[in-house]
Amino acid sequence: FEVLGADAGAGEGKEQGKVPLSRLLNGNTRTVFIVEDETLFANHLHLLVEELNHEVMGPAADADTALALVKQQEPDLVLMDINIAGAYDGVETAELIQQQHTCPVIF
Known about the structure:
single chain, alpha/beta
């Protein structure tokens, strides 16, 4: 996975921005925001996140919906599709989310 906005921590011998998913979620209940325009994939991710006992936010199928939802609630983690509908693609949407919140984004 590629993670935007995560810091592996100094002195751990890990490249900045590369963090294991297990460390991001570390056993505590987290809010995971799903941004995916394909319903089948969005539903599958939703089920996986719930099976891991985390709260699901979304899904959002386009950039505008994603940006509106993060203004209402800050997620702990964003699972972002790169090719989404709207004024921005997934990478641009993730960068806009990062300007408002410090949560990591996985593409």
